[in-house]
Request: fold
Amino acid sequence: ELLVTAKICRSMMGLIQQTINFGNIQIDDHKNNVLSISNRSEVPLVYEIRKAGDGMSTLDLKISEEDRMGVIRPYRSRVLSFSILYL
Reply:
């Protein structure tokens, strides 16, 4: 026989900003923006940021390697920065 003990908890993530809008961008324009992620649970939150699609605006979006994936401690938040350079 083997006695197994487990604790189940619910992982909850909150995004302060649900949509990202850079507004009008001219050629050779560079704009920065931030995204705030909060961990609302009692366990660490593991996240990975990936770009969806392969459209022109997606290719111009730059996320730093240190912000692309990480861990957010319980009941803490993290601000991720990213930029867009339209050529």
